[in-house]
Amino acid sequence: MNVYREGNVAIANAPGAGVADDKAVYAYMPALIKYYLGEEALLAQVSTYVGLRKDDFAYMREHLAELVVKTTGDSGGYNMLMGPFAAKKEIEAYLAQMKKAPGSYIAQPLIELSSHPTYVGGRFEPRRIDLRPFILYGETNPRAAGRPHARGAARGLLRRELLPGRRQQGHLGAAARGS
């Protein structure tokens, strides 16, 4: 932290930045954009059901086999239910946990991640990717010179999986290496 305070290193997602990273906020983003910017969101978002809302929780219970359900406090793909791939017994056990604290869960429909050809073991095969753009900007960063960098990062999955959130399975590309 001292190195950060002295300005010798920049931190993306600086300490405290995760305070608003509650998955339940997803459901309210269009309303927040409308309220603060006075305009409609330019990009559509994934439908998000919040267990705290009675009608949403009823929908979640009735459609668990079709939804991806996540706890609002966990990250990295942990403690979630992939309804379309879960056994009936697993769904029932998960629902029992959800009923104890409905406000701790959100649900979304399954979204297929993009894929790209990846050279693995001497051949190309499709791999799921999770592209997350990062923009670096700053007057104190000599490379920034007051304008955004053209940088990006993507996580590639080790197998043909749908869970990019399991951070130990991914890697950052050129942006993390500084090239």
List keywords for this structure.
179 residues, three-stranded antiparallel β-sheet, 22% helix, disordered C terminus
Report a brief summary of the structure.
Helix content is 22%, strand content 20%. The protein has helices at residues 2-5, 29-37, 54-62, 88-100, 174-177; strands spanning 49-50, 67-71, 80-82, 105-109, 114-120, 123-132, 153-156.
- Compute the average pLDDT: 76
% residues in beta strands = 15-25%
Helix proportion of residues, in percent? 10-25%
What overall form do the CA principal axes indicate? extended
Biggest β-sheet description: 4 strands, antiparallel
Radius of gyration: 19 Å
- Number of DSSP helices? 5
Structural class assignment:
alpha+beta
Q: Please give the order of strands in the largest beta sheet.
A: 1-4-2-3
Describe the model.
With 179 residues, this protein is α+β, with helices and mostly antiparallel strands. Helix content is 22%, strand content 20%. The protein has a 4-stranded antiparallel sheet, covered by helices on one side. β2 and β3 (80-82) form a beta hairpin. The protein is extended.
Topology:
Layout (H helix, E strand, L loop, with lengths): L1 H4 L23 H9 L11 E2 L3 H9 L4 E5 L8 E3 L5 H13 L4 E5 L4 E7 L2 E10 L20 E4 L17 H4 L2
Antiparallel strand pairs: 1-4, 2-3, 2-4, 5-6, 6-7
